[in-house]
Amino acid sequence: MAKFVLAGKADCPKYAKAELLADELQHSLPNFRVHKISILPDKWKEWLESTCKTNGWKHEDSPVVWRELVDQGGKGSLLGGLSDFVKHCQDYYGITSDVPTDLMLRVAAENLETKMSLITDEQHRLSLVQPFHIWITGALSLTCQMLIPHLLSVEVFPGITAINLHLLDLEGTKEEMQELQMDVEDLALSTLHQVTVHTGLEQAFQDANVILLLDDFSAQTEDGSDGEKQRRAKATSDRYREYGQLVDERASRQVKVIVSGELSVNLRCLLLAENACSIHGGQFVATATQLEDEARAVIAKEMRVRPSDVTDVFVWGNISGAFFTDLQRAKVFNYRGAVTGPPSFSQPVLELLHDRKWLETDFQQQVHCHRIAVASKSSRPAAVSATNGILRVLKAWCGASGPDEILSVGVLCSGLYGLPDGVVLSVPVRFTDGKWSVLFDVAVDDKLKEKLELYANELLQVCYSTEKNKTQMPQSTLSGMNCN
Fold it and tell me: Which of 8, 9, 17, 167 could form a disulfide with 139 if both were Cys (CB 3.0 to 4.6 A apart)?
């Protein structure tokens, strides 16, 4: 079987002549097949250059014709332009073309009109779809790549059937982002309506329903001089101020924004919220769920159970700095002690762990060091647990988790627990109907209040230091942050 591919500019008379000849051959010869590719005139040059580069061809005019090796496999064999195609058909099939000029022009005009009509119909079809827009920064990170398949499942976003995934990485190259785009498209998931990649902020956060911010530049600041670290910290702060302004200008008014990473998580969340002035501050959270899971792993090892057997561990404070792991409501299942029961039977962790010294010193220290220990052994960031922590927050926020689940997240704590305005701290919350509410039925004794005040003051000092290093910021934002 002979299979030819005929491509050309939609308004090209030579392409029209080749098309008429190909139609005649296909009608006359049962084993002759042709595939036509009509390209808009303004897209033709770019398309031809890309096609020739991919196949190692040299061709400059419209149309271009090649033969696909159906039985042999491999790349196609370039035949050439119109004259080459006419000569081939005359030599092999004894059929030539004698098309009047006026017919060629008429067919060329019809081709262009048909192509434009098809584009209009496709644009109309796409306009009828109302996709859900998810933006991810730091898209080349390992965490992002682990997240993507889960984000495109109905498990995380119940009722969402079409997702536009926007991947942004300001440190990435165009080639890296295009490779990531193809990789995501190859997932062939039914909810993926479109995937776009970005290396600049020209379209950042446009129509965003969910924004996941993963770019904290921690990899670049682990080593290097103090001056380099300070430069990176300032660049990150400036970047997140700009992010906040873009979110304010372009995102949905009901956008859900989640900040994750290793460095300055609380500060980055605060900068976003303070610079997105028209969006409610409760729509910005920072994930402390990864710390929860790490604390559960430490407890599980001590009690010789699985980490999943430990529940209701709370994290208070600075996610990237000083924090306190609270076990006042922590429970353990399947613990082999003096009292046992069925799988649904749970016991308070504090009643079973009698070593108070371990709880107050070694346990807290082990939680702080757990992620570093894991990363040093694996020689890469703890992306699996980071992914799980983000997904836990997303599911709860979008109504995909049970109503009784309590999570630790960094939120604006204005007035909560007597804390000052303009600070983001991790506290235990419950998500209901797309909103979070702080737990007030937990015991916040004087000792914990003292810790919270210490954490708040630490963050305010960081905020103040950041403000001194920035170039300019509206006075209204400064007063809202209470950093003076």
Answer: 167
* H runs (alpha helix) in 361-484: 363-378, 383-397, 446-469, 475-481
Among 258, 265, 262, CA closest to 282: 258
Token pair, residue 26, equals 């296909």
pLDDT above 60 (res 481): no
Q: Which residues contact 86 (CB under 8 A, 6 or more apart)?
A: 18, 21, 96, 97
- 283: alpha, beta or left, given left = phi > 0 and alpha = psi -120 to 50? alpha
Look at the chain and count its residues. Answer: 484
DSSP codes of every residue in 173-194: -HHHHHHHHHHHHTT--TTEEE
Contact call for residues 62 and 82 (beta carbons, < 8 A): no
Angstrom distances, CA of residue 58 to CA of 61, 75, 120, 468: 10, 15, 33, 59
Q: Considering only CA atoms, which of 5, 7, 75 is closest in space to residue 35?
A: 5
Strand partners, 411: 425
134 Cβ contact partners less than 8 Å away, ≥ 6 residues apart: 151, 163, 164, 165, 166, 208, 209, 210, 211, 212
Q: Which residues lie below 8 Å from residue 147, measured CB to CB, with a gap of 6+? A: 136, 212, 387, 390, 391
Which residues contact residue 390 at a Cβ distance below 8 angstroms, ignoring those fewer than 6 apart? Answer: 143, 147, 212, 258, 260, 287, 289
Bridge-partner residues for 220, per DSSP? Answer: none
**How far is 128 from 476, CA to CA, in rounded Å?**
41
Non-local (6+) Cβ contacts of 323 within 8 A are 288, 291, 315, 316, 317, 368, 426, 455
Query: What digits encode the pLDDT tens for the residues 12-67?
Result: 999 998 988 888 888 888 888 888 899 999 999 999 998 998 888 999 999 999 98
Question: Is the four-CA dihedral 389, 254, 455, 213 of positive or negative sign?
Answer: positive
Residue 170 CA: distances (Å) to CA of 177, 240, 243: 10, 12, 12
Q: Judge if pTM exceeds 0.85.
A: no
Residue from 193, 276, 267 nearest 236 by CA = 267
CA pair distance 195, 261, nearest whole angstrom: 23
Question: Crossing angle, helix 226-250 and helix 446-469, to 10 degrees?
Answer: 90
CA dist 311 → 260, 334, 363 (Å): 22, 12, 16
